[in-house]
Structures are given as C-alpha cells and as structure tokens.
Amino acid sequence: MALLSDLLGHAVLSGGVLALGALGEVIAERAGVLNLGVEGLMSLGAVVAVMTVNATPHPWLGLLAAGLVGGLGASVLALSSVVLRANQVLCGVAITFLGLGLSSVIGRSVAGVPVSAVFEPVSIPVLSAIPVIGPAFFSQNILVYLIYLVFPVMAHFWLFRTRSGLDLRAVGENPAAADAVGVPVMKYRALAVIVGGVLAGVAGADLTLAVVPVWSDGMIAGRGWIAVALVIFAGYRPIVAVLSGLLFGLVTAVGFMGQARGWPVAPAILNTLPYLGTVACIIVPMLAFAKLRSAMAAPAALGTPYYRSGR
Amino acid sequence: MSAVSPRTRLTVVPSHRIAVGRGLSILAALGIVAITLAAMGRSPIELAGLVVRSTVGSRFGIEDLALFMTPLMLTGAAVWVGIRVNLWNIGAEGQLYAGATAATAVGLFTHWPAIVALPAMVVAGALAGAAWIFIPAAARAWLGVSEIVTSLLLNFVASLLVYYLATGPWADRVTGALASTERLHVALPELWGAVHLGFLLALGIVVGLGVGLAKSRFGYETAVCGSNPQAAHYAGIKVAPRILAVLLLSGALAGLAGVFEVAGTVHRLQGGLANNYGYLGIVVALLARGSCFALIPAALLMALILDTGIVLQTTQISSSAVLAITGLLVLAIAAGDEMAAYVRVNRN
C-alpha cells in the first residue's frame, strides 16, 4: 500500500512538469504554431527559478521570474517564426539550443547548490487521510493543484468557451478564413506562443522548486520534447494533455521505483521507459483505432506560416 | 503609408539574395556575441584573432575541421534528403548512435582482417541507422504520425543504451577505463595526419547522393511526393512506400556518420559520442537549402563553429556557450533567409 502511494505521489509530482509543458504547447499549436523550443524554455525557467529563489528566498518570485523568462524566450520565437514567418521547426530547434546553452552558462554558479526555499507540501484536511490516494493527490505542494485543476480548466474554458478561444483555434485551422473575417492572425499566433512559453518556463520552475530541488546541467533531459509529444497523444486537448502528463509521470515513477528498490535492470534501461512509452502511446492508438485519426488530428494549419498574399 | 513602397514575397529566391541575407544575419549574430563577450569583460577582437590562428591558421586546426566535417556532411545529408520531400528527421543523433553501436559490435567481436571487417562495419552501421528510424518512418508513411517527435524521442533511448553498453556489458575490462569499450581491432586508414578515409567517403556519398537524386526515377518520384502528395497519388506513384524509403535512406546516412566516428576518429564506443552531430545536421541541411552539393561548404561552416568552440573552451568559455551561439546563428539564418525573399515592388 505504501509502495503504491509512493508511486502515485511521485507520478503526480514528476507528471506535473510534463503536464504544464504540454498545456502550453496545446495553446501554441491550436493557433497553428509548432513550438519546438519547449525544452530550451523549460531549462531557462528551471535555472532562473533557482537563481531567483537563492537571491530572495521566495518560491513564488522564482515562479514569476521563470514565467517571465519563458515568455521572453517565446517572444523571440514569436518574432522569428510568426512575425518574420521563418521556418518553425528551425526556429524551435534554435530556441532549444539557445535555451539549453544559456541556462547552462548562467546556471554555473548555482549548479549543485540545494535550493534555499521550495514549495512545501500542503495537506488538505479530510481528503489527505484517504488511504493510498490521499497522500498521493491531496498532500502535495500547491503547484500540483494549480497544474491539475486550475490551469487546464482555465485553458479549456478559454479555448472552447470564449470568443477569443474560437478565434485562436480558427487561426490554427484556417488562417485565411480567420483573416477574412477580421481576426488578427499574427497577433493571436504571437500571443499563443508567448502564453505557451510562460507555461514552459513555469514548468521548469516546477521541476526545480517542487520536484528536484537543485539545478544541474542537462536536468531537463528531454522533458520538453516529451511534452511536445504528449500534445499529439492528447489530440490537442488541454485537459487530456494534463492527464496524459500524469500518465507519463507514472511511467517515470515506475523507472524511479525500480532504481530505488534495486530491480535487476540497469538504471539506464529503466530510464528509456518514458521515451519508449511516449513513442508507443503516439503510434499504437493510431494503429488500433482508425477513427481516432480524424478526431485527434492536428490543427490544419499547424506548422505553416500564413502569408496574406498567398491565400 | 504611401511613402513605403510595397514588398512582395518571391517564391523562388535567387542565391545572391540568400547570400546577402545570410551574410548580414551571421554578422548580426556575431555582433550580439561580441557585445556579450565584451560585457563579460573579454576582448572580442583578441578572441577572434586566437580563433582564426588556431583553426584555419594551423595544420592541427585544419585536420580538426576535416574530422568535424565528416559526420556533419553525413548527418546534414540525412536531414537534407528528408527536408527535400518535406519530412523532418530530427532523430539523426539516435541513428548515429545506432550505426556506431553496430559498427562497434563488428569491430569488437569479430577478428576479420580489415578488408572484410571495414565493409561489414559500414553495412551493419547503415542498416542499424535505417532500423533505428524504421518505426517512426512506417508510422509516418501509413498512419500519418508526425515523424518529428517520434524520431527525436528515440535519440534519448539510443543515447541511454550506448551509455549502458559502454559502461556495462561492453566496457573495457583490460585498462579499467569504465566509460568506454576497448579500442576497436580495425580502423579506417589515415590519409593526412588524423584525417581518415571516412572524410573522402563522406564527400563521395554527398556528391553521389546529389547526382543520384537529381538524375534517378526514385529522386524524381520522391520529389513529387514531397511537393504534392495528392498529385503523386493521381500520377500513380505510391506515396507511403516512398516516404518510408526516404526516411530509411536518411537513417542509413546518419548511421554511416556513426560508423566513421567509431572506425576513424574515436576508435571506441562511449557515451556522448554523437556530440550533437545529429542536431547540428539540421543546421547543415538548412544552410545547404535546396542543393545537396552545398552540404559540403555548410558542413565546413558548422565545423568552423565547432572548432571555434573548442578554442573558446581553452579560454574558460564553457562549451554550453557554444551551443547558445549555435542557436543564435540558426535563428539569425532562418530569419535572414525569410527576409531575403521580400523584394520592393515598383508600382509605377
């Protein structure tokens, strides 16, 4: 029982980083922009959060700074791939290089130093006393509640229940039609990329302020890329994206448990689980259910720059 | 707004415009780097002098350039054959590892003479590279699953498996160096200093690929599939097998980069062997644009940047700064290429 509870608790924690990254990417991709810079933005967010908290022992300030840096990095991406309409794949990879490189350079002084203040677990009375799921779900830090309850509901409401959400999705499906009815395509795309970047930065802060309370070089280790993959798995839906983050947290947690309990499998092999699991989860449903292919399809204009003259 | 003459976007951009756009964007990126270095209290001019002296200014530097160019030409070609038909293989890093692992298996566990072992390593490496991309390729061809993310995620798997092999079952037990396998029994012959046969082979492969794709039926049919899959379908070209074939070719090329790395440059399998060559292959392919032959100067430019990185590391500037500079350059070039497509229109 304690093992199961530990496993779930770890899944909720480590899945939160993926969930946030994926949620941000859903917003960007719904507007038609493929942001492949998530890995770099997460890395920047993670290091800036640690530096801010070590300078001012306030985790909330760290979170804010990480969000700002993520948004700033994403606005560079918005400038190049939305305003200048340069190739989205290349700009994304470039932002990842830039983010990983920069965060490693500026993070040198704090590498390996434990973070001075982190988000402490908050127990919800009554609920946290439920066996197994109580400690795992209701005795976590406050970010976990934001990530799994508040943010996805807000994102879902925005995208599917408001006028601006409809406009944003229209820009991602058919920018020419949206433009024709007066929706500012470039503005929506830039906004979506920046909101996505803020969430990627916050995801990085979640990693260093709540999951692994120390900065070390290369600690993002593909979490940003997994987040991008989860968006496809989730069929571009915010709530599903967050839940699939939890599912992948569980896969990571199984590997982690295996190491902690000394399973007779090499740690390197266990560490391949999240990546292999992600690949399998993207491909297998498509193989099994042909109908899913249209229901889970990407926004029609995803990855293509919009030129008014070329319509 | 009458003062500003309107601009229009060219669909085919003449190469002199690209050259100017690129020159300006590289200058802008280097300017940002110089300002950052100056702000850190370093003299950009002094560093630039040092870099020129120790890269193109010395025999050792030139040998290093050729060694860097070898894998970059091949991973560049791997990404380029994909981009040519609108497919993005971001997994060249993993395929390089797969090729290196297969070549190492042949080099470690057989005792064939070099004349047999080296071709066997090349074949095994190319096959392993192709096998590593098979699942993402098949999923893209028949299920329409984006190859970008699936090919990329397998990079992490390959890197972890190589690390596991090099520190675990295949680790060198003779010298006790636990981070790599022992030295392979065979090596590619060295031609000029440390520059080995792999350099010439890579050059030959790039040229052969350029000619082959331009002249062959396969090259033509895949180009049609890439630019308009529906037209290809109506013309009786089966699109899915062509997508699979192009991606397998791409994986094989990246696998070859891994073979030449272990057989010519590193001589053993170790973690971190891929050295970002797979990701940098994307940059090389971007720089080359539509031309396969342009992969060669593009790989040279990228090798120059990598070599600069090595030089800068000796002056206490970390290797991650080089990664950031590479990112900045890619961003600048991507933007520069796009801006070069806009020309002023004279309405009179």
From TrEMBL, chain A:
Membrane spanning residue stretches: 34-53, 60-80, 86-106, 142-160, 190-212, 218-236, 272-290
Statement: the UniProt record of this protein carries the keyword Signal: no
GO cellular component: plasma membrane
Top-rank taxon: Bacteria
UniProtKB keywords: Cell membrane, Membrane, Transmembrane, Transmembrane helix
UniProt-annotated location(s): Cell membrane
Pfam families: BPD_transp_2
Membrane topology: Multi-pass membrane protein
InterPro entries: ABC_transp_permease (IPR001851)
Gene Ontology molecular functions: transmembrane transporter activity
Keyword Cell membrane included in the entry's annotation: yes
Designated name of the protein: ABC transporter permease
Species the sequence originates in: Gluconobacter cerinus
TrEMBL record, chain B:
One Pfam family it belongs to: BPD_transp_2
UniProt GO MF annotations: transmembrane transporter activity
Any single Gene Ontology cellular-component annotation: plasma membrane
Entry membrane topology: Multi-pass membrane protein
Major localization listed first in the record, in broad terms: membrane
The organism's place on the tree of life at top rank: Bacteria
Keywords associated with the record: Cell membrane, Membrane, Transmembrane, Transmembrane helix
InterPro entries: ABC_transp_permease
TM stretches of this protein: 24-45, 65-83, 95-112, 118-139, 151-171, 191-214, 243-266, 278-305, 317-336
UniProt-annotated location(s): Cell membrane
Protein's recorded name: ABC transporter permease
Organism: Gluconobacter cerinus
